[in-house]
Amino acid sequence: MSKVWDDKSEHCIPFILERLQIHQQKYADDRDAPPFFLGLNGVQGAGKTTLVSTICKTLRSPPHNLPMAVLSIDDLYLPHHLQQQLASSHPSNPLIQHRGQPSTHDIALGRSLFSSLRHGQLTKIPSYDKSAFTGQGDRVPEEKWECVNQKGQKRVSVVVFEGWCVGFRSLARKEVKRIWKEAVRAKEQGGYKGRLGCNRLEDVEFINNALKEYDELTNQFDALIHIDAEDTQYVYEWRLEQEAALRAVKGSGMTDEQVVDFVNGYYPAYELFTERLRAGAFDEEKGRQLRLVVGKDRKVKEVLR
């Protein structure tokens, strides 16, 4: 797998500290102040994991010494049997035949986790094993979940919620139809590399409708970092590299053909929701979002506030 350079933290850490200071000032007189919630969106393989590691190392170390919890939206995927049920209940919708798209996450669990962390309660952080069931994945047993806010521990003051679709907002139905029609037209004209135009409108609308529920999490973010790509098609190569590395470590996982099929299943979401995210997830306050645009080499090419 190509080396993922960390040239992102130099932009992200100052942004986080700036927004964290605003949060701390807001709750300066509140002994039960909620944690600072940071959303982190990034195309799979763009360097989210490396960035999260650096963020945590920095904020947990002097002079900050902040207790943190990290939650991935991947860890909210439905257990394998429920994902199978979802797929079988909508057999004609190819977008939900495996994990990935909005509707394949346990948002009720996400709400519960956010609420528990917000109130400083004992919280178990779920985990998901992507290598289970030959790469189909399954939730790790609850007894293996990490516990935070335990007795004797400092209360979590920063929560990082990361994932490929974190911060995506649902669109008005007419907007979904417009974008879908443009994709279909591009496919008919030839040279189309996307996947949105290969799907039925009703299947795409199912995903968009499911995404509305995710707003309950997004609305709680104090700040959002978006690792964008100059071309979202890079995700195919990056995801193939990721799975090869996973197979090397776990000894099992998806084949290259399965990876391409997997990416095809969620790529329509990039075509639908990326422009809205680029415009800003927080209409009322632009300063809460930082966007880094990376090239195929995963290095930062542009920084936008």
Written description of the protein model:
The chain has 305 residues and is α/β, with parallel strands linked by helices. Helices cover 41% and strands 15% of the residues. It contains nine helices and ten strands. The strands form three sheets. It has a six-stranded mixed beta sheet, with helices on one face. Strands 3-6 form a two-stranded antiparallel sheet. A hairpin with an 8-residue loop joins strand 4 and strand 5 (138-139). Helix 5 runs antiparallel to helix 6 and helix 8 packs across helix 9. The chain is globular. The two termini are 31 Å apart. 37% of the residues are buried.
Outline the secondary-structure elements.
Blueprint: H1 9-26, E1 36-42, H2 48-60, E2 68-72, H3 80-89, H4 107-118, E3 123-125, E4 128-129, E5 138-139, E6 146-148, E7 158-163, H5 173-189, H6 201-211, H7 215-218, E8 223-229, H8 234-250, H9 256-279, E9 289-294, E10 300-304
Parallel strand pairs: 1-7, 1-8, 2-7, 8-9
Antiparallel strand pairs: 3-6, 4-5, 9-10
Helix pairs in contact: 5-6, 8-9
Order of the strands making up the biggest sheet: 2-7-1-8-9-10
What share of the residues does DSSP label as strand, in percent? 15-25%
Q: Given the structure, what is the number of helices?
A: 9
Order of helices and strands: HEHEHHEEEEEHHHEHHEE
The best one-word shape is globular
Low-pLDDT residue spans? none
Main beta sheet, described? 6 strands, mixed
Overall structural class, as computed from helix and strand content, comes to alpha/beta
Distance between the termini: 31 Å
Helix content range of the residues, please?
A: 40-55%
What is the tally of beta strands?
10
What is the rounded Rg? 19 Å
pLDDT averaged over residues: 94
